[in-house]
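Example 4.3 (complexes with small molecules)
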Amino acid sequence: MKIVSDKKQIAVLIDPDKTDSNQLQKTIEAANKAGVDFFLVGGSLLLKNNLEETILTLKKHTKKKVYLFPGNPSQISNKADGILLLSLISGRNADLLIGNHVQAAPLLKQSKLHIIPTGYMLIDSGTPTTVSYISNTQPIPAHKPEIAACTALAGEQLGLQFIYLEAGSGAQNAVSQETIKAVRKMIKIPLIVGGGIRSAAQIETAFKAGADIVVIGTAIENDVEFLNKIKSMDL
Ligand code: 1GP
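Answer. The structure with SN-glycerol-1-phosphate bound is encoded below.
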């Protein structure tokens, strides 16, 4: 993942719990053909304990970069290329702002993973999401783009390199155009948007509003053919 890129990028999120080896291989093949830019791997829970196996399958079948998108500090593997080192800056849970990072720091140093400090922001998507429950934090209200914008700005001023606007996996409502625009206007660092995006039109809307990277998980888990729609998009 380049820190600065003129090109809009699409990332495929692989949740190791929600795929099997057969489905994963089909997804990787379709993602390669669709020209997606990179993969993220992670989830809120890992019931199947197959993070490493998932990364190894990805590395075997694609040349695209694989970044960890960890739901907790146990999801660190030096088999990946890098890690989104997430600080949950929309919340006020100290463990997710610094505590977990302290525990992970020596492991990360030894791993040689490419570390990408990322301000992770939950935006209310209409219903409670796994991530708000697990993180024990409240999302930023959907109709308060100015709070989202100031939060992202604070993240940038703290030196974070990316901002990730998250509606939550499988969210009812994706992050609104209004919120993306307000954040885009306030910050210079690259903006990632994900959660509840399930059509090519929604991807285009997010890009037009100012997203640099759009993350798709559930829509591809539900139907790998979704990647064909991405293939025919003019990015
Ligand atoms: C979740 O933003 C990602 O962390 C992707 O969300 O699964 O809804 O595409 P979806």
